[in-house]
Design brief:
This protein is mainly alpha-helical. About 55% of the residues lie in helices and about 0% in strands. Helix 1 runs parallel beside helix 3 and helix 2 packs across helix 3. The longest helix has 21 residues. The model has no long low-confidence stretch (mean pLDDT about 80).
């Protein structure tokens, strides 16, 4: 692979991290370069080291190098119950609506 392919892989991974909200520090840049190095070593052994193989290997390892925080999602709404949507009961036989 040529130097531009490595730069493209770095740019794609860096963009992914930035869009994910990861604040890049010098240590995190080192982690990113180590991730790319490991992905290159893995892809060259398995699939011949093409750019797509390296990028796939790097994305597979992304969670190990840059773990995403777990977000607790709140319940969307309370459980629906029959009367919770505002329908009144049907009047009994012989009664008129609103006579109660």
């Amino acid at each position: 692979m040529d130097d531009m392919a490595f730069q493209d892989i770095f740019n794609r991974l860096y963009g992914y991290l930035m869009e994910s909200g990861v604040a890049m520090t010098s240590n995190r840049f080192r982690q990113l370069l180590q991730l790319i190095d490991d992905a290159i070593a893995s892809a060259s052994q398995e699939e011949g080291g093409t750019m797509n193989a390296v990028l796939d290997a790097a994305m597979d390892r992304m969670q190990v190098y840059f773990p995403a925080p777990q977000i607790a999602v709140a319940e969307v709404s309370p459980a629906l119950m029959r009367g919770s949507i505002g329908y009144a009961r049907a009047p009994a036989a012989g009664e008129r609506r609103g006579s109660r």
